[in-house]
Design a protein that fits this description.
single chain, mainly alpha
C-alpha cells in the first residue's frame, strides 16, 4: 500500500504569499487607475489656474504654489472617494470622517514632497516656464509623492480588514483562500441591511 501523501509544510506559506501577492497586485492596479484620474484633475486644475487666460496668464500665474495646493486639494477628494469605494473597499475604516482626516494628513505629506520639488525648481533654479514647473510638480514630485501615498494609505489609512468581519467584502476583491474565510465568517447569513436580511 503506497504511503499517503502529506502536504509539505511550506505549501501553506506559499498559498498565503500567493494570496497576498494577488491582493497587492489588484490594489496596485486600482490605485494606479484612481491615481491617473486624480492626476488629470490635479494637473488640469494647476494649468488652468496658471495659464488659462489672456496671453497664457491665468488668475494664479505668479503663484504656482497656491495653484498646486488647490489642484492637490481637489484631486485629494477625488482620490479618497476612488480609493475608499473601489481600491481599498475591503480594507476601509468604518468611520469615514476619521478615514478622510487620515487620508488628508497622508496627502499633506505627498503635497509637501511635490511642493519641495516645485519650490526648488521655481525659486532656487529660477526655472519658471510651463515645462519646468510641470516636470518638477507633476512628474518628479508626483512620482515621489505617489510612492509615499501608496505606503501611507496601506499603513495608516485603509487598515481595517473588513473581510475578517465578513460582511462588506466583495467576492472579486478576495483571493480564493480569503473568500473561503469570508464564507466561514458569514456562515450562510445575509449581509446586514441587504434585502435578504430583511
Amino acid at each position: 500500500m503506497p504511503p499517503e501523501k502529506t502536504a509539505a509544510p511550506h505549501e501553506g506559506l506559499v498559498r498565503r504569499l500567493r494570496a497576498t501577492y494577488e491582493v497587492i497586485v489588484r490594489e496596485a492596479a486600482k490605485f494606479g487607475i484612481v491615481g491617473g484620474v486624480a492626476f488629470v484633475v490635479n494637473t488640469g486644475t494647476f494649468n488652468l489656474l496658471r495659464f488659462a487666460g489672456p496671453d497664457g496668464i491665468g488668475v494664479l500665474h505668479a503663484k504656482p504654489l497656491t495653484a498646486n495646493v488647490i489642484g492637490v486639494v481637489i484631486s485629494t477628494v477625488v482620490a479618497w472617494l476612488g480609493n475608499r469605494l473601489w481600491t481599498f473597499r475591503h480594507r476601509r475604516r468604518a468611520s469615514a470622517p476619521r478615514e478622510l482626516l487620515l487620508f488628508a494628513v497622508m496627502n499633506a505629506g505627498g503635497l509637501a514632497i511635490s511642493l519641495a520639488c516645485l519650490g526648488f525648481t521655481y525659486y532656487v533654479l529660477d526655472l519658471r516656464g510651463p515645462v519646468a514647473t510641470n516636470v518638477s510638480a507633476n512628474v518628479v514630485g508626483l512620482v515621489l509623492g505617489t510612492l509615499f501615498r501608496w505606503w501611507a494609505y496601506r499603513r495608516f489609512v485603509f487598515t481595517t480588514e473588513l473581510a475578517q468581519e465578513g460582511w462588506d467584502a466583495e467576492p472579486g476583491d478576495l483571493p480564493p483562500s480569503r473568500a473561503a474565510q469570508v464564507d466561514d465568517v458569514r456562515g450562510g447569513q445575509a449581509r446586514p441591511g441587504s434585502p435578504a436580511a430583511r
